[in-house]
Design a protein that fits this description.
Helix content: 25-40%
Structural class: alpha/beta
Shape: globular
Largest sheet: 7 strands, parallel
Radius of gyration: 21 Å
Number of strands: 13
Strand order of the largest sheet: 3-2-1-4-5-6-7
Number of helices: 13
Distance between the termini: 11 Å
Amino acid sequence: MKKVLMVASESSHFKNFHLPYIKRLLDDGVKVHTASNGKFAFGETVHTQLGFKKKLISPANLGVIVKLAKLIRKERYDAVYTNSTLAGFVGRAAAILSGVKAVECRHICHGYLFNDDGSARSRVYLTFEKLVRRRTDLLAVMNADDLEIARTHKLGREIVFLDGMGLDADKLPLLSEKEIRRKKEELGQPSGGLLFLCVGEFSQRKNQASIIRAFASLKRTDCRLIFAGSGELLEECRALAAELGIAEKTAFLGHCTEMNALYRACGCLISASRFEGLPFNVMEALYCGENVIVSDVKGNRDLAADSVYPYNDDRYLAQLMESALPGNGKNTLPERYLLENALEKNIRLLRLL
């Protein structure tokens, strides 16, 4: 019986991206093991908790490499699937350390955290990717820029392109006008006007401070700014909004589990990210019929050709927000990004079965 290991730094990654794939594997009789920070349980999946630290070069991650190597040596998997930067390097390094040459390493890049621009940042990240490229039997990328990086630096023996992991449209059903109106009232915009929405972890990469500065400079008075997400920079951003005098026009909702009503109540999504893979928040917003304003970075560019701006240009962002209109509520996401179209194609490309 075939047996595979899926590795991610956080168990939420499996919940957000891999449940349909894990279910498909289990239904076909494949033994599925998972490994990550935190608990994870799904069907007959066997889970191992790991102590990943976010900083790639943290000594604690060396211990994770050793633990994973022992697991690979013991279980003799047919394939190890790694995800994103941290777990991607740790998992492939563990495969090397295990000495089990028969196990295939297949890495799913959800977005390189660098551009191929010769900067110190890119050199550091590229060095780590190059250290494990000979143990990368299959590399999957999700945007045009990362595909070019992967091919230029030969970061995998075989390189394939995915249209993301697939957006599950069943989680974003249409709502009645009454339900949408009720949500707008909860957000402090009962009638007319525009709700700007930003979704994601508060971090340097997501760059929420830029949105706050741009919003504070607006002349229009018919809008509010809604943030959904948590993270280490949340309180710093909240303080910035207060300092700029827009605390009453902003809402920091923290981590939200029910996003559908939020997307459908808000008229315009803003992403100010410095780097992306293929952003789920932009896909979800497009599916729910929102307009989007996004930074001109990889991943964002693949999804939204209009209303893009340089991520470090607060003034240009403010201009786009000044003239922004709410979306019409009609799906504008290309069908290839939907789970129903992506699942079987990805299973084939990733050689899951």
